[in-house]
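Researcher: I'm preparing a figure for a lab meeting and need a structural model of a single chain. I don't have an experimental structure, so a prediction will have to do for now. The sequence is pasted below. Please return the structure as tokens so I can convert it later.
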Amino acid sequence: MASQSTEKEEALKYHSDYPKGKTSVVSTKATSNSHDLSLAYTPGVAYPCLEIQKDKDLSYQYTNRGNLVGIITNGTAVLGLGDIGAASGKPVMEGKAVLFKKFAGIDVFDIELDTKNPEEFIRAVKLMEPTFGGINLEDIKAPECFHIEQTLIDTMDIPVFHDDQHGTSIIVTAALINALYLNGKNPSKIKVVISGAGAAAVAIAYMICNIGIQMNNIFLVDSKGVINHKRTDLNEIKKQFIRNTDKSTLDEIMEEADLLIGVSNKDIVSKSMVKKMSKDPIIFALSNPDPEISYDDAISVRNDLIMGTGRSDFPNQVNNLLGFPYIFRGALDVRSRQITLEMRLAAAYALAELAREPVPDEVAKAYFGEKFHFGKDYIIPKPFDKRALFKVAPAVAEAAVNSKVARIPYIGREKYIQELKKIQRE
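Model: Understood. Here is the structure written out token by token.
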């Protein structure tokens, strides 16, 4: 394993080598002679402009809008780094743009807004609606992110999706569906502890209730302890999770817990806490780059444990990459107005179903020949499983139609999968 100093040098060189950064704009039309240029720009460009003036929806026919997503941040909660500012978050946004393109063929403009004022942020995004087919909100701190996303969903006519909330909650839900299938527990009976009370924690809590978890059985723990009836320091979001319990610490609330979901900080869960969980427990320790408890420490004290982390070097990586490219692909291809709960659940169930299917050799090759079989160490597909595009995007598109938010007809699963295969060949 490379040392941290070597890794830093390699990463800085990777980003600074010519051409700098990780993304560029590439022409999709010929520009090899003066005639081409007269079509691409003046005078020929006037004709599509005038057609769009008559019907704004024609922007999807004459421009790239229907395949273009805006990744928009203000840099206040950047991937394991916190509030580092808009400009500092740009490498992360470019990185996410690369993933959209590689895994779903979606083009991206990353936008970094230099404001911490939610209303300024909202206004800026709304003004850019004619540019994009969808908006991916990224790395915006809680609780402002909840207000920002919901306001934009309510006021825009294109899908708006805060990946830190919903991307994580979708993958967690998919993994949980399969973990509960394996350990045979009734979701309505299990006790859930969530370490963390930010955007991801809140979204996960609401999402898993749609697969049978009871809200009153979910206990959130923030940096000051269990969110219970004794707390007087809670914002409006956290108040929704007040529980009538005298237990006030993570250690105390872990007693007989069936499921621990960590979206907080490294090394805050001890072996003794894991020991006191119920029979056949589930732990998703998702803090990055280091989880709330290491995989090795957790399994050393519980051989009946199903565990996932955010890391690729241990089983069951809970990775948003399994969600956002394919969810947006499905939403864009039926020109959905929103990404609804039904669409998010469809994605979760599609991923859970995929994990139960035989894994082809080409996936094993991407992981140095390692074989995968549905079970405790494989409850969620691998990020390099190309089948995810064909499973998730159609499920999302169909859910959009059923939710009545699709604006153009769905061509049917068989034809759609053939179209998606063209993306993977490009």
